[in-house]
Write a structure and sequence with these properties.
Blueprint lengths: L2 H18 L3 H8 L7 E5 L8 H11 L3 E3 L2 H6 L1 H9 L4 E2 L2 E2 L11 H20 L5 E3 L14 H21 L3 E3 L13 H10 L5 E6 L9 H12 E6 L18 H10 L4 E4 L7 H18 L1
Parallel strand pairs: 1-2, 1-9, 2-3, 4-5, 5-6, 6-7, 7-8, 8-9
The protein binds magnesium ion.
Length: 299
């Protein structure tokens, strides 16, 4: 074999090997499957408007398809949210936390608070068709917390298994959200959250990525790809500059690397605004939506 044919053979072989190890969605998206649509969602505070109806009216005009309330608001306003969403083309994209206590609490009373309040939210989320309820295993400020050891990870996976199976029975999931090190040192990377979801051995345990917290990641593309379509259930977005509206820091707010991964893996979930606003909402919100649609098309 001369040098040229050796190179050609090994290059082809490497290509075939790489293709065979890719997720099916990635292979098909490169060949026949149409690129997935960008499904945007807002948290309650994102759109202008006083009442839920005003906010949802505004969202419909912008073509926003998902609504992400907090867990406490879900329980308090259950009937109103149910009634408003029935009449619209907007679905719950996720429920953002809202439980008391935390899953890695040392104090059994605090852990019990988590178990009770989280299950109440999960049940309500399932009834209204939310794909999941977002949770963080432990914020830095939540103490006393089980130590960051292998034993604690095993405990977390066992607890999540039970919770995930409960969520599945309710018709929903629980979604692990990694945060940056200043907020939650325990869980910082999307790939780690996906591995914990996998090791929990329940299809009711998923993970998400938040572009703001993903400052922890070396690569947005790599982070989403490491979770893949099987585990990635939700995405949060904000300006990478200061967690306000996407586009408020044009030099920093480039999401195309992450969007490229979402498109290639065939991600069908929501990209949900979780951010403040540094100016006039009526101007910055539509501008952010336009920016994200442009970047999605380009990615
Ligand atoms: Mg978030």
């Amino acid at each position: 074999m001369d040098r040229r044919s050796f190179f050609k053979t090994t290059a082809l072989g490497a290509g075939a090997l790489a293709a065979s190890s890719l997720p099916l969605g990635l292979v098909t998206s490169c060949t026949t499957a149409p690129a997935p649509k960008l499904h945007l969602s807002f948290q309650h505070g994102t759109p202008p408007g006083e009442t839920l109806a005003e906010k949802l009216d505004y969202m419909e005009k912008l073509g926003i398809e998902g609504y992400e309330p907090g867990g406490k608001a879900l329980l308090r306003d259950f009937a109103a949210i149910d009634a408003e969403l029935r009449a619209r083309n907007i679905k719950l994209s996720a429920i953002c936390a809202g439980f008391d206590g935390f899953i890695l609490a040392e104090d059994p009373a605090v852990k019990a608070e988590f178990d009770t309040s989280m299950r109440e939210i999960v049940e309500a989320a399932g009834k209204l068709g939310s794909p999941g309820v977002i949770m963080v295993p432990a914020f830095n400020a939540q103490t006393p917390c089980k130590p960051h050891t292998l034993e604690t990870r095993d405990y977390l996976c066992a607890e999540l298994h039970e919770l995930g199976e409960f969520a599945l029975k309710c018709g929903t999931t629980v979604i692990l959200e990694p945060l940056n090190r200043r907020e939650a040192f325990y869980l910082r990377l999307v790939g780690d959250a996906a591995a914990i979801a996998r090791d929990s051995e329940s299809a009711g345990v998923k993970c998400m990525g938040d572009f703001w917290h993903m400052q922890e990641e070396v690569s947005d593309y790599g982070a989403f790809m490491s979770a893949g379509k099987e585990y990635l259930q939700h995405v949060h977005i904000a300006s990478k500059g200061d967690r306000k509206m996407p586009g408020e820091h044009p030099e920093a707010d480039d999401y195309t690397d992450g969007f490229r991964a979402l498109k290639q893996m065939g991600y069908e979930g929501f990209v949900s605004f979780e951010c403040g606003c540094g100016g006039e909402r009526e101007i910055l919100v539509p501008a952010a939506v336009e920016l994200l649609r442009e970047q999605w098309a380009k990615a």
